[in-house]
Amino acid sequence: LVLSKQTKFCSSSFFLVFLRLLRVYEAEPNAFISTIVQKSQVFKNSKINGTSQSKNWCWKIQDESDNFLSRKIFNENKEPIFYKTTSEKLKQFGMNNQCKDYSIFQSKEERINILDILKYEETLQSDQQLKHLNEDELKEVKQCIQETLYCNGSLSIHSTNLTKIKIKIIDEFEQDIDEIVATNLTSLKGFDHNKYRFVKKLQIPNVIDMGTQPFSSVQKLILNNLKHAEIRQFYRFYNLTYIELRNLEGNLRDCFQFSYNLQTVIIPKIKIIENSFQACFEIKYVEADSLTAIVASFNVVLHQFQIFAPNLVTEEDNLQFMQLVAEKDEFAGEKETDIKDFIVQNQVYMPYIEFYKDQKFDFVQRIVKIKKKLEILAKMINTDF
């Protein structure tokens, strides 16, 4: 979000929004509602009025104010890492968060290990919470360090599976992760930390269990080893545009909801789609060779889309948003836009266009009236504007 440093956030400015960077100069009470932020900066002279009544979350905070005003926005968030501060200052406000003495904007582009083994062993000797770890758990920690590598936003994982201890180490790794490359990994279960919502790319060809974490920023997924989808899988993948699941079998139930930007779906072995693809506004092409039925799915679609499903049995009335493709063509990028698409889109968007036209006209009229009143006022006080 790119705004002036002097921007004032009024009440209810953001609701259910994901932000990579939020700078707060001035904010009214409850300006942010259910907002998830990767990095937040509060300035020394910032003004934040009132404590938020909503649960907001931030991973990294650089709070330069004297009274740690960020607490008013992220008041129930116990996880953030604080930057350009000290543990002594945090303790003054009853906080025991992890802190760094450098800027939140400092990043490392060189290859680094996910954990410094020497520093970890030193911590192990002094930290009472870590002393209870047995030899097997310590072995897992060292193994995780050997099997992971970070470089300029990309995290490489060479493990085939990750234990809770290994995932905890990755969760606590402070660098921004834009991409995860894990060609051997078979499961993403346990990736529940909110920071994974900001991962843009996933290279996980051998994953057979996606878990339930919504990777909200991922745009393309090819998971051809995935054979079964749980209920509410792929939920709130907001930025996903392309999904390929060539070996996913059985029925698809309560999946792909609120994938607003999803355009292409390849699911050749799915037989029934039930209560799925809800609020997927931009669907353009679905390839489902084995599909026999669609139940309460594909609601709220903004335009016609193509579906290859030779075994689909349904009444023509139920296909008002779909164009049934009789012959299978290999999908090669974006299909040519049909004139019917323009007609349907025009019908959808015209009411909104008319609404904004009316608003614009109303604003112009109000400006003209204000200008006239100002001219009259100027004459009354005999002053040139």
Automatic annotation (TrEMBL):
Protein name: Leucine rich repeats-containing protein
UniProt superkingdom: Eukaryota
Range of residues in the leader sequence: 1-27
Organism for this UniProt entry: Trepomonas sp. PC1
Keywords recorded for this protein, A-Z: Signal
